[in-house]
Specification:
Blueprint lengths: L8 E5 L6 H12 L2 E4 H9 L3 H24 L5 E4 L8 H9 L3 E7 L2 H10 L7 H4 L1 H15 L4 E4 L5 H12 L1
Parallel strand pairs: 1-3, 1-4, 2-3, 4-5
Bound molecules: shikimate-3-phosphate.
Protein backbone atom coordinates (compact mmCIF):
# COMPACT_ATOMS: atom_id res chain seq x y z
CA UNK A 1 0.00 0.00 0.00
CA UNK A 2 0.91 3.68 -0.19
CA UNK A 3 1.95 3.66 3.47
CA UNK A 4 4.04 0.53 3.22
CA UNK A 5 5.93 1.84 0.20
CA UNK A 6 7.05 4.92 2.17
CA UNK A 7 5.08 7.29 0.01
CA UNK A 8 4.48 10.60 1.75
CA UNK A 9 2.23 12.39 -0.68
CA UNK A 10 0.29 11.93 -3.89
CA UNK A 11 0.25 15.00 -6.13
CA UNK A 12 -2.38 15.25 -8.87
CA UNK A 13 -1.61 17.24 -11.99
CA UNK A 14 -3.41 17.81 -15.28
CA UNK A 15 -5.45 20.46 -17.06
CA UNK A 16 -8.58 22.15 -15.69
CA UNK A 17 -11.43 19.66 -15.59
CA UNK A 18 -9.13 16.65 -15.20
CA UNK A 19 -10.72 15.82 -11.83
CA UNK A 20 -7.76 16.73 -9.62
CA UNK A 21 -9.88 18.16 -6.82
CA UNK A 22 -12.77 15.71 -7.06
CA UNK A 23 -10.61 12.59 -7.26
CA UNK A 24 -8.04 13.98 -4.85
CA UNK A 25 -10.61 14.40 -2.15
CA UNK A 26 -11.93 10.87 -2.70
CA UNK A 27 -8.44 9.34 -2.82
CA UNK A 28 -7.47 11.08 0.42
CA UNK A 29 -10.57 9.69 2.14
CA UNK A 30 -9.70 6.24 0.84
CA UNK A 31 -6.11 6.42 2.14
CA UNK A 32 -7.07 8.16 5.39
CA UNK A 33 -4.80 11.05 4.38
CA UNK A 34 -5.46 14.78 4.35
CA UNK A 35 -6.54 16.49 1.16
CA UNK A 36 -5.14 19.86 0.09
CA UNK A 37 -5.94 21.89 -2.97
CA UNK A 38 -3.29 24.37 -4.09
CA UNK A 39 -5.81 26.93 -5.40
CA UNK A 40 -7.80 26.78 -2.15
CA UNK A 41 -4.67 27.17 -0.02
CA UNK A 42 -3.58 30.20 -2.04
CA UNK A 43 -7.03 31.77 -1.76
CA UNK A 44 -7.12 31.22 2.01
CA UNK A 45 -3.59 32.50 2.48
CA UNK A 46 -4.12 35.65 0.39
CA UNK A 47 -7.71 36.36 1.37
CA UNK A 48 -8.48 36.73 -2.35
CA UNK A 49 -10.09 34.47 -4.92
CA UNK A 50 -7.93 33.08 -7.72
CA UNK A 51 -9.73 35.41 -10.16
CA UNK A 52 -9.01 38.39 -7.86
CA UNK A 53 -5.32 37.50 -7.79
CA UNK A 54 -5.20 37.28 -11.59
CA UNK A 55 -6.81 40.74 -11.78
CA UNK A 56 -4.70 42.37 -9.08
CA UNK A 57 -1.32 40.71 -9.61
CA UNK A 58 -1.57 39.22 -13.07
CA UNK A 59 -0.98 35.61 -13.94
CA UNK A 60 2.69 36.01 -12.99
CA UNK A 61 1.67 37.02 -9.48
CA UNK A 62 -0.52 33.96 -9.17
CA UNK A 63 2.26 31.68 -10.46
CA UNK A 64 4.65 33.07 -7.86
CA UNK A 65 2.11 32.35 -5.14
CA UNK A 66 1.67 28.80 -6.45
CA UNK A 67 5.40 28.15 -6.27
CA UNK A 68 5.65 29.45 -2.73
CA UNK A 69 2.59 27.59 -1.49
CA UNK A 70 3.75 24.35 -3.09
CA UNK A 71 7.03 24.54 -1.19
CA UNK A 72 5.09 24.88 2.05
CA UNK A 73 2.69 22.04 1.30
CA UNK A 74 5.28 19.56 0.05
CA UNK A 75 6.70 19.35 3.57
CA UNK A 76 3.53 17.64 4.70
CA UNK A 77 2.98 13.92 5.07
CA UNK A 78 0.06 11.64 4.33
CA UNK A 79 -1.31 14.23 1.95
CA UNK A 80 -3.09 14.14 -1.36
CA UNK A 81 -2.47 17.46 -3.13
CA UNK A 82 -4.35 18.78 -6.16
CA UNK A 83 -2.29 21.25 -8.17
CA UNK A 84 -3.84 23.97 -10.33
CA UNK A 85 -3.82 23.15 -14.03
CA UNK A 86 -1.20 25.77 -14.83
CA UNK A 87 1.17 25.20 -11.92
CA UNK A 88 3.54 23.14 -14.07
CA UNK A 89 4.14 26.17 -16.29
CA UNK A 90 6.54 27.42 -13.62
CA UNK A 91 9.99 25.94 -13.80
CA UNK A 92 10.22 26.28 -10.02
CA UNK A 93 7.16 24.07 -9.61
CA UNK A 94 8.59 21.46 -11.96
CA UNK A 95 11.86 21.49 -10.07
CA UNK A 96 10.12 21.06 -6.73
CA UNK A 97 8.13 18.11 -8.03
CA UNK A 98 11.22 16.48 -9.49
CA UNK A 99 13.17 16.95 -6.26
CA UNK A 100 10.42 15.58 -4.02
CA UNK A 101 11.44 11.93 -4.05
CA UNK A 102 8.83 10.43 -1.75
CA UNK A 103 5.85 12.00 -3.47
CA UNK A 104 4.11 10.36 -6.38
CA UNK A 105 2.94 12.72 -9.12
CA UNK A 106 -0.05 11.45 -11.11
CA UNK A 107 -1.17 13.04 -14.37
CA UNK A 108 -4.93 12.84 -14.90
CA UNK A 109 -5.39 13.07 -18.65
CA UNK A 110 -8.34 13.47 -21.00
CA UNK A 111 -8.90 15.02 -24.43
CA UNK A 112 -9.22 18.80 -24.38
CA UNK A 113 -12.85 18.75 -25.52
CA UNK A 114 -13.82 16.50 -22.59
CA UNK A 115 -11.92 18.72 -20.15
CA UNK A 116 -13.64 21.90 -21.34
CA UNK A 117 -17.01 20.16 -21.27
CA UNK A 118 -16.46 19.09 -17.65
CA UNK A 119 -15.44 22.62 -16.64
CA UNK A 120 -18.54 24.11 -18.22
CA UNK A 121 -20.77 21.62 -16.39
CA UNK A 122 -19.32 22.66 -13.04
CA UNK A 123 -20.28 25.76 -11.08
CA UNK A 124 -17.55 28.36 -10.69
CA UNK A 125 -16.50 28.69 -14.34
CA UNK A 126 -16.09 32.41 -13.61
CA UNK A 127 -13.45 31.50 -11.03
CA UNK A 128 -11.29 30.04 -13.81
CA UNK A 129 -9.77 32.99 -15.69
CA UNK A 130 -7.80 30.70 -18.00
CA UNK A 131 -11.02 28.96 -19.10
CA UNK A 132 -12.54 32.27 -20.17
CA UNK A 133 -9.79 32.86 -22.73
CA UNK A 134 -11.10 30.19 -25.11
CA UNK A 135 -8.85 31.29 -27.97
CA UNK A 136 -5.69 30.44 -26.10
CA UNK A 137 -7.00 27.32 -24.42
CA UNK A 138 -5.76 24.78 -26.97
CA UNK A 139 -2.30 26.28 -27.26
CA UNK A 140 -1.96 26.45 -23.48
CA UNK A 141 -3.07 22.86 -23.15
CA UNK A 142 -0.62 21.74 -25.86
CA UNK A 143 2.23 23.69 -24.28
CA UNK A 144 1.59 22.06 -20.92
CA UNK A 145 1.32 18.47 -22.15
CA UNK A 146 5.06 17.74 -21.98
CA UNK A 147 5.11 19.04 -18.42
CA UNK A 148 2.13 16.95 -17.35
CA UNK A 149 3.87 13.96 -18.90
CA UNK A 150 6.81 14.40 -16.55
CA UNK A 151 4.56 12.89 -13.86
CA UNK A 152 5.48 9.47 -12.51
CA UNK A 153 2.15 7.94 -13.45
CA UNK A 154 -0.64 8.77 -15.82
CA UNK A 155 -4.33 7.94 -15.67
CA UNK A 156 -6.49 8.44 -18.77
CA UNK A 157 -9.95 9.28 -17.51
CA UNK A 158 -11.89 9.61 -20.76
CA UNK A 159 -14.90 7.33 -20.72
CA UNK A 160 -14.50 6.60 -17.01
CA UNK A 161 -17.04 7.68 -14.41
CA UNK A 162 -15.61 9.46 -11.35
CA UNK A 163 -16.06 6.20 -9.40
CA UNK A 164 -14.17 4.24 -12.05
CA UNK A 165 -11.42 6.84 -12.16
CA UNK A 166 -11.11 6.62 -8.39
CA UNK A 167 -10.75 2.84 -8.48
CA UNK A 168 -8.10 3.12 -11.17
CA UNK A 169 -6.27 5.82 -9.20
CA UNK A 170 -6.28 3.73 -6.03
CA UNK A 171 -4.90 0.77 -7.94
CA UNK A 172 -2.14 2.98 -9.36
CA UNK A 173 -0.85 4.40 -6.10
CA UNK A 174 -1.37 1.41 -3.81
C1 LIG B 1 -5.40 27.51 -13.95
C2 LIG B 1 -6.10 26.48 -13.39
C3 LIG B 1 -6.85 26.61 -12.13
C4 LIG B 1 -6.29 27.72 -11.27
C5 LIG B 1 -6.17 28.98 -12.05
C6 LIG B 1 -5.28 28.83 -13.29
C7 LIG B 1 -4.68 27.30 -15.22
O1 LIG B 1 -6.80 25.38 -11.44
O2 LIG B 1 -5.05 27.37 -10.72
O3 LIG B 1 -7.47 29.37 -12.42
O4 LIG B 1 -3.79 28.10 -15.54
O5 LIG B 1 -4.99 26.31 -15.92
P1 LIG B 1 -7.72 24.11 -11.84
O6 LIG B 1 -6.92 23.24 -12.76
O7 LIG B 1 -7.96 23.44 -10.53
O8 LIG B 1 -8.96 24.63 -12.47
Amino acid sequence: GAQASGLRAVVLTGFMGAGKTTLGRLLAAELGWEFRDLDTEIAQDSGMTVADIFRAEGEAGFRAREMEMLARLLRRERMVLALGGGAVESEGVREQLAACKDACVVYLSAPLEALVQRCLEQPGAAERPVLADRERLRSRWAARLPYYEQAHLRLETEGLSPAESLQALIALVK
